[in-house]
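Anyone up for a design puzzle?
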């Protein structure tokens, strides 16, 4: 997601896989859609507790991206540079995208498509229409 809540990279996976297993694939997929200067401008990554894994934090650190991922043990929320209020505002942007998908595009509310290519195409069309609404 970018700061307006518009998707940059979308990957489909099976329902029995946790989202955190595809985190690195999504970040790597961003490079196919953005140029190098835009990729260098990515300085922070916000995610929920489900993405609290050592390999994710190490990957972001190797790419010089600051992470704001709450720890699962509730003792430490985010890095010292980011407060919890900023984290909640940023997470709302991601949740708003999913609300747009489910409310604005009726076919996305429940996945009726069995063929993943068709479903991914519907998501891409919905994303394109969201871009037109926000940017145009």
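Challenge accepted. My sequence:
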């Amino acid at each position: 997601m970018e700061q307006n809540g518009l998707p940059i990279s979308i990957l489909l996976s099976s329902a029995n896989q946790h989202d955190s297993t595809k985190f690195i694939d999504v970040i790597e997929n961003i490079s196919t859609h953005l140029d190098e200067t835009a990729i260098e401008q990515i300085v922070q990554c916000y995610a929920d507790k489900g993405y609290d894994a050592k390999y994710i934090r190490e990957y972001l650190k190797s790419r010089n991206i600051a992470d704001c991922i709450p720890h699962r043990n509730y003792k430490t929320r985010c890095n010292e540079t980011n407060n919890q209020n900023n984290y909640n505002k940023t997470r709302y942007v991601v949740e708003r995208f999913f609300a747009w998908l489910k409310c604005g595009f009726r076919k996305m509310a429940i996945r009726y498509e069995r063929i993943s290519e068709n479903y991914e195409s519907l998501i891409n069309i919905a994303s394109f229409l969201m871009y037109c609404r926000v940017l145009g």
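A detail worth pointing out: The chain has a mean pLDDT of 80.
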